[in-house]
Structures are given as C-alpha cells and as structure tokens.
Amino acid sequence: MQKETAGADAGATVIMKCPFCGHLEDRVVDSREAKIGDTIRRRRECTRCNRRFTTYERIDEIPYMVIKKDGRREKFDRQKVLTGLLKACERRPIPVSKLEEIVNEAEAYVAESTARERPTSAVGELVMNRLKRLDKVAYVRFASVYLDFKDVREFMDELKDLLKARGK
Length: 168
Prior knowledge:
Number of domains: 2
Distance between the termini: 63 Å
Largest sheet: 3 strands, antiparallel
Number of strands: 6
Strand order of the largest sheet: 1-2-3
Strand content: 15-25%
Shape: elongated
Number of helices: 5
Oligomer: single chain
Order of helices and strands: EEEEEHHEHHH
Helix content: 40-55%
Structural class: alpha+beta
C-alpha cells in the first residue's frame, strides 16, 4: 500500500499491489476522510492496467484485553458479553438497547484501564451489578453461570441476599 505519511516521514511510501494485475505502482486519484473520522479512504489507479481500486488507512490500535481466571489473556469480545446477556434475559421484558448499554459500559471500563486490560472478574461484576438493577430474574440467571455455583446452597445464599436487598 502506498501510504502518504505526515510529519517527518512525509513522502515516504509503502508498496500496495494492484488487486487486478499485481503491479506494484499506482497513483492516488482521490483521498478523503471516511465517515467515522478514524480512517482515510484513498482511490488509487494502477499505472500498468489503469484500473482503480480503493484502500483504507487507519490507526493500528492495540486491542483491549481481559485476564481470565486462569491467567490467560484474550481480546475483549463485545459479542461474547452480549450473548451472555441475551441468554440471561431470554423471555424477559428487557429491550436489547438496555443490554447494549451494559456492553458499552463494560467495554468503556476495559478501555479506561491504562494497561488496556482488566480481569474478567471485574468486568463480570460490573455486568452483574447493572443487570441486578435492571431485572432480578436475568441477574440470577447470569450470576448462576458467571459465579459458577458449586451447589444449590451457594445458589440459595445468593437468592436470600437478593431478597434481603429487595426488602430494604
């Protein structure tokens, strides 16, 4: 990809192969910022076959990470959090937009970390607390999977705590 860079490296180029003929030289016909503003869209024309193609230039971001219980690190996955929430809220009167808000909050929480990572336990606690305020049944469903109750007694203890808090 021929990439025009600003600043000290202005004029520096990186090779972009034509997707049609494989030639390594092209010229930029048009350059503009994409709708979101974090990407530059460039229309290019191959100097050999004269066909045009589009490339996108964006900032290479470091992914947000979560630290699993066993110490493994993996990329934060919005869809995974949303899938868990959808399962917990199955047949409950909760709009998906509310679940999206919880996922957005969880993602923002991970992104706010200076190390760009958080333990899954902290992310799970945040999600559970939001769900607890939204719908008690969905909270219990989510908690039963997330907290990985070992037996019925642990599950009942959680329910009793929930009922005590409701009575206050």
